[in-house]
Amino acid sequence: MKKIFVLISLAGSFYASAQLFNIKDRMDNLENFDNQKLSWGFFLNFGQNDYKIVLDPKYGSRGNKNLVSSKPTYSFGAGLMGKMRINDNFDLRLEPGLQFIERELKFDTQSNDQYAANDSFETRVLSKEDMEKRVKATTIDVPLLLEYHIDRWYNSRPYMAAGLNWMVNLQSNEKDEDDNQTASVFRSTTQNFGYSAEIGVQFYFDKFKLTPAFRGTFTINNELVKDNPGTPPYWASAINTAKGRSFMFILKFE
């Protein structure tokens, strides 16, 4: 069985090489595709998401121990892409997509009971629901990217891109009156801005172009909405800033 598997793998590799690179008697696939002024496609992506958090020195840490942590979680998304050719090496891309994101925060802040007398709040015994917050987001993400690519090498072309993002969280609870104490709601902002950096390789086939890529997206503004006045400093008060970040694997089809 191992020999058969090796033979099948080698045969598949030779076939893929012949299709993509076709070195002998080579004829490039989609030779004039990149000469179009405008083109379009779609993409799928799978990501890992968390928050980059800066903790409050009083409520968010105890000595060298951080009392709040952000655990990476996974997400998926899809969207459309439009591309405008600038010249032989630069393109401008707009890639609006819908991202389904969930981030997890853990609060080990029971020790903030010690501040109750001076800061005038009522202590409570934190439940599991109090200590583990899942922040869900259905986000419309609209990145505008400037792409730089080198010349084609047979039927492939490496590239890099960078740009700015405008993001709208359709599940935002920014204006909710309830907070972590009244309804166990961790609030976050509706509109956010960020930046992205991406690298990938474009592969040209007979009928379409496939691009696997890696992208990092980082929020610029603080996404944290503070708890209401009088809420004990177990949750949002323990955090100064929380900025979302995502690392994605993307498959693009044109």
From TrEMBL:
Signal peptide segment: 1-18
Domain Outer membrane protein beta-barrel: 36-223
InterPro entries: Beta-barrel_OMP_2, OMP/PagP_B-barrel
Keywords attached to this entry: Signal
Name by which UniProt lists this protein: Outer membrane protein beta-barrel domain-containing protein
Organism whose genome encodes this protein: Riemerella columbipharyngis
Lineage, highest ranks first: Bacteria, Pseudomonadati, Bacteroidota, Flavobacteriia, Flavobacteriales
